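User: Predict the complex.
Assistant: Input components as received:
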Amino acid sequence: MNTAPNESTAAPSRGSIACVGLGMVLGSHLSPLARSHIEQADVVFAALSDGVVEIWLERMHSDVRSLQSYYGDGTDKPRITTYREWVDVMMSEVRAGKRVCAVFYGHPGVFAWSPHEVIRVAREEGYAAHMEPGISAEDCLYADLGIDPGRTGCQHYEATQLLFYKTPLNPQAYLVLWQVGLVGDLSMKRFATGPEYRQVLVDVLARDYPLDHEAIIYRGATLPVQQPRIRTTTLRELPKIDISSEETVVLPPASTLISNDEVVERLRKLDQALDVPATAG
Amino acid sequence: MTNTIELLESIGQDASLRHASAQDLEQALESMHASDALRRTARTGDVRHVKMELGGKDGSVNHNPPPFNTQTPPPPPPPPHKNEQA
């Protein structure tokens, strides 16, 4: 059995890794603890939303190594190859006894393969490994669109994955689709796909949603002088609209919640049997 | 360059500036002697102005991969085909 050693009790010469989130907005979202991980590290790796944020990070540590160059020219290298290389390069420093901090935009564990994988590998080899949460694009979306996922429920899917599998959707809940801008890219090499691919997505969604149903196209801010971009359209029009890979599509519920009378009655009887006071009103 | 990053960081940490009106933010940036590029980004919402000022290559997958592209794992492989003779 592999047991991860406690980071605080690890010997100083032993390598370790902390994956932290920088949040989405420069200057606004970085937690004090994530900043401390960055400042106390021997080596900092960075996979960030843009070069401006990377320059900001470089002001916090003298040895920031960007992971972006591993993409190559971005045309013919499968992204999974790049992600595996990220894990390898980070682990090589951990194995060399360095305190490594890997910095990702948003939350390091949300829509992110490498942070989870590097933590798994590090722990498997007996190194201390830790993830520090950050404010994610999902968090910003709730705030900017005024959505409470607890009200009707909320389902999240990576758009291509939704097409790849027969996925049951719940039209009573919000549906949030990530990476619609490159939906249908099975090659894992492209960073954008065209309207014909979005039409496939619409055809799949049309099984559960009317074509005139509202679709919200959302992009959060990354610089503090920006505001979020929120566009509304219909499901039918979605293929005709240019959607960047930074944007997220939200479908509000298409039908109302239906009371499950049988279960509610069963709960009432339980309350009566246990002498629980009835709900006021 | 340093000045723009410092200004962005201080704006990001200032509640009155982060959500200021466009007019108030414009006045604040002017009083802080912000670069033209930062003021254009604030006016238009287009990050490219600041990226250009700081030497970034706009639109480059290599340097500016869009959010979520950089971190998302591939979808799991398709299930194997059933053996028709089974």
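Chain A touches chain B through 54 residues (CB under 8 Å).
Let me know if you want any component modeled separately.
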